[in-house]
Specification:
The chain is an all-beta fold. It has one domain: Thrombin, subunit H (Beta Barrel), CATH 2.40.10.270. It has no helices and 8 strands. The strands form 2 sheets. A 6-stranded antiparallel beta barrel has the order 1-4-5-8-7-6. Strands 2-3 form a two-stranded antiparallel sheet. A hairpin with a 6-residue loop joins strand 7 and strand 8. The protein is globular. It starts with 8 loop residues before the first strand and ends in a 5-residue tail after the last strand.
Length: about 110
């Protein structure tokens, strides 16, 4: 079991833009934040006592990501880890100190 704050996963942080029409519907283009790569810890879904309040459907949350604070991270962001995409559905700026973010994410397989 790793101690809180140990970050072993190098991820790319991106923000989504306005939806763009495609022949099959719409797609959301993503661009890298600056800096784009950060170290994070990625864990399974949160325990009941770690749930983030708000409009987050717990059934959709597949991962909890902890990383350094970045002012550009919002619920329109995604975390790219290898070939996997984790879409931010809820976030907390721990103690409102602008030091640590805890993100509740949904992994959507096959998304680009």
């Amino acid at each position: 079991m790793k101690a809180r704050g140990q970050r072993y996963h190098l991820v790319t942080v991106q923000i989504g833009g306005a939806p763009v029409p495609t022949p099959d519907g719409y797609t959301t283009p993503y661009t890298n934040l600056d800096p784009a790569q950060m170290w994070a810890s990625i864990d399974g879904p949160p325990r009941e006592d770690e749930a983030i309040a708000g409009n987050v459907e717990r059934a959709k949350i597949s991962h909890t990501v902890e990383m350094d604070f970045h002012p550009g991270v919002t619920r329109q962001s995604r975390i790219v880890f290898g070939t996997r995409n984790l879409y931010v559905r809820g976030l907390v700026n721990v103690e409102e100190r602008d030091e640590t973010l805890i993100l509740q994410c949904e992994e959507i397989e096959g998304s680009a």
